[in-house]
Design brief:
Elements (H helix, E strand, L loop, with lengths): L7 H10 L9 E4 L4 E4 L12 E4 L2 H6 L3 E2 L5 H6 L3 H12 L7 H6 L4 H12 L3 H18 L4 H7 L5 H12 L12 E6 L6 E5 L4 E6 L5 H11 L4 E3 L3 H14 L16 H11 L7 E2 H7 L6 H9 L12 E2 L12 H19 L1
Helix pairs in contact: 7-8, 9-10, 13-14
Catalytic activity: a 4-O-methyl-thymidine in DNA + L-cysteinyl-[protein] = a thymidine in DNA + S-methyl-L-cysteinyl-[protein]; a 6-O-methyl-2'-deoxyguanosine in DNA + L-cysteinyl-[protein] = S-methyl-L-cysteinyl-[protein] + a 2'-deoxyguanosine in DNA
EC number: 2.1.1.63
Enzyme class: transferase
């Protein structure tokens, strides 16, 4: 069972004291530097408001933080496994290298063994870890208004075509297709469960998904058909509001979201999504029960399909719907995230009752 992190004040006090009881059980990401550390790190301590705390190194990397070179949190989490230690050293030596399974085989390693070992230790594969670090650098450069070639270099891609292809895999279109006059703007929101892509106009949020959701490129393409005008890089006020509300949510302070949303779907899908928003935090429903609530008792499969088509994660809480037997069933962001979201909301509900 994952160690339950205490409140941020307790974790910050442990960071200041370099409390060994938290070593390997919690990590801190420093927003002012973009680096994450063990709580026992000997480096100069950051301000409280610049700290974000995570369960695992994988969560830190998903949120866009780089490992500290002093306390080496990845090496510590890897323990004494020479295979993992060696690959982490290689990644540290060439953080922008475009790694592939062929590179692992050339080192005499079995890709499936590497995959399992990294998932066990970090919650992500070695190739995912390397890709996250590279693409995030490129995204940050593009958002700052720099040309594609600068982003390509920062992300460590040898060719512009390779960078465009990787970027298109993430968001469904190459960086050169993003427009400065676009009505829809895209940015990243970091969360303890990984980075999310948010797309909004000046007035409403249109999409919110975890960056590793496989359906993300299709969702972005569908959104642009529904809302013509192209995509651009930027952070309108609604994405700021969404980020602030998500921060309170993950801090266990509130499950109330007031960010204005535009729900792109059929009338039935929008009806299902609205019903999801009416399920109280800390409670769950089965697909069949949700169909009953909608007055469509034979439509549980249609409800499940609508649930899977939701493009605004967490705020439209499709994670609150379980199988008839109470199993987690499918979730586009991964069952481990669904489990954690249900746990967060159960804790919130108990706190409200006390």
């Amino acid at each position: 069972m994952m160690f339950e992190l205490p409140d941020h004040e307790t974790l910050y006090a442990a960071l200041l004291a370099r409390d060994p009881d938290y070593d390997g059980r919690a990590y801190v990401g420093v927003t002012s530097t973009g680096i994450f550390c063990r709580l026992t790190c000997p480096a100069r301590k950051p301000k409280f408001e610049n700290c974000r705390f995570f369960h695992t190194p994988g969560e830190c990397i998903d949120a866009g933080f780089r490992p500290c070179k002093r306390c080496k949190p990845l090496s510590a989490a890897a323990g004494n496994d020479p295979m993992i230690q060696g690959l982490l050293a290689d990644l540290e030596a060439a953080p922008t290298k475009r790694w592939a399974e062929a590179d692992l085989i050339a080192r005499g390693l079995d890709p499936s063994t590497v995959r399992r070992a990294f998932r066990l230790q970090f919650g992500m594969t070695f190739l995912e870890m390397a890709r996250q670090r590279r693409l995030r650098e490129g995204f940050t450069t593009l958002k700052a208004g720099e040309p594609v070639i600068a982003a390509q270099i920062d992300a460590g891609f040898e060719s512009a075509s390779a960078f465009r292809a990787a970027f298109a895999t993430l968001l469904g279109q190459a960086p050169g297709h993003f427009r400065k006059d676009a009505e829809l703007l895209v940015d990243w929101i970091d969360t303890p469960l990984g980075a999310m892509v948010a797309i909004g106009c000046r007035h409403r949020l249109h999409l919110l998904e975890f960056v590793d959701r496989k359906a993300l490129p299709r969702e972005v393409a569908r959104l642009q058909k529904e809302q013509p005008g192209g995509l651009g890089f930027g952070r309108p006020a609604v994405i700021d509001q969404a980020a602030e509300e998500l921060e309170r949510y993950f801090a266990g302070q509130s499950a109330t979201f007031q960010t204005p949303l535009t729900l792109h779907g059929t009338p039935f899908q929008r009806q299902v999504w609205q019903a999801l928003r009416e399920i109280p935090a800390g409670q769950t429903r089965s697909y069949g029960a949700l169909a009953q609530d909608l007055g469509r008792p034979t439509a549980s499969r249609a409800v499940a399909r609508a649930n899977g088509s939701n493009q605004i994660a967490i705020m439209v809480p499709c994670h609150r719907v379980l199988g008839a037997d109470g199993s987690l069933t499918g979730y586009g962001g991964g069952l481990w995230r669904k489990q954690r979201l249900v746990e967060i909301e159960s804790e919130l509900a108990r706190a409200v009752q006390l």
